[in-house]
Amino acid sequence: MNFNPIVIVGGEPQSIFIEILLKSIKKIHHPIILVSSKSLLIKNIKKFNYSIRFNQLNKDFTNIKKNEINLVNIDYKKFSFSKKKITTESNKFIESSFNKALEIIDKIKCIGLINGPISKKTFLKGKYNGITEYLAKKTGTKNPVMLIYNPKLSVSPFTTHIPLSEVSKKINKKLIISKIKKISKFYKNVLKKKPIFAVTGLNPHCESFKGENKEKKEIIPAINYLKKNKISIYGPYASDTIFLKENIKKFDVVFGMYHDQVLGPMKTLYGFKAINITLGLPFLRISPDHGPNIQMLGKNKSDPSSLIESIRFLKKNAN
């Protein structure tokens, strides 16, 4: 095999992902290994009348074909699924899919992993904040970083999927430094660019009116340390103004203190033209920046842009 495939985990079977994958095939032009259900794939090919072939892989993954969907079948019939909503019934299927994907990556050279959307409420069940943390646990990775990437601007939340009431307790100088260093290294090594960072404060106007001042105690010392280590970084900035056009054009990455502080503006600016990259894992992992969207399931109207961008990114930037 003289080409390195992309491993794609189909994720939640009651989602739009297989639909948008089939929409994306003609624009991919790269070998993929899909880890999902054969019956689910066939069902979608027939439903939407696609003339798409797939090649079922053997146990050693040695019969990969370049111009077809290479399928590793996770037997859908072993598990019972709800037909109308996402439930915990799909958990074993999803877990098996991720386990098989990690086995593939361990055995053959792949340029990265893409996973379809997962319901955090049903699959993670409070054990992990997100798939970022789930994969970090399975691979023995400490302090992974979520980067929502677009060539014009990226954002990264210091904390990910936790309640807002818990954010302040998590913020500390050492971890801010660690995460920003990982992003900087990724930009330099993969994107061949020295990034310019903007860091938001935690509180409105970067001020704490009572109690502990995280800006003064943790955020500003972290920024000052990173500046001394020759990272181009500025802040803290108030999050209500940093995303204004005249401000944001100066930066490559906005590093925020919590999930919605930076992901809300990012999705407003770029919609599905952004991808979710996990930094720090033994492999490059990307997730299209959308959820299961079960309300659109079966309608074949969902936008495949984020998946297409994910694949293009891996093709262009993976070693």
Task: Give structural notes.
This protein has 319 residues and is an alpha/beta fold. The protein folds into two domains: 1-141 and 281-319, Isopropylmalate Dehydrogenase (3-Layer(aba) Sandwich); 145-270, Isopropylmalate Dehydrogenase. It has eleven helices and twelve strands. The protein has helices at residues 17-28, 38-47, 91-107, 120-124, 131-139, 164-170, 173-189, 214-228, 245-248, 259-270, 305-317, and strands at 6-9, 32-36, 54-56, 69-73, 112-115, 145-149, 154-157, 196-200, 232-237, 253-256, 275-279, 285-288. Strands 3-4-2-1-5-12-11-6 form an eight-stranded mixed β-sheet, with helices on both faces. Strands 7-10-8-9 form a four-stranded parallel β-sheet, with helices on both faces. Helix 1 crosses helix 11 and helix 7 (173-189) runs parallel beside helix 8 (214-228).
Overall mean confidence score, pLDDT:
89
| Helix/strand structural class | alpha/beta
Major beta sheet summary:
8 strands, mixed
Show unreliable segments. none
Q: Determine the fraction of residues in helical runs and give it as a percent range.
A: 25-40%
User: Based on DSSP secondary structure assignment, what is the total number of beta strands?
Assistant: 12
Shape: elongated
Kindly report how far apart the N and C termini lie: 16 Å
Secondary-structure element sequence? EHEHEEHEHHEEHHEHEHEHEEH
Question: Which strand order do you get reading across the main beta sheet?
Answer: 3-4-2-1-5-12-11-6
Radius of gyration using CA atoms only: 20 Å
Which CATH architecture of the largest domain would you pick? 3-Layer(aba) Sandwich
The CATH superfamily name of the largest domain is: Isopropylmalate Dehydrogenase
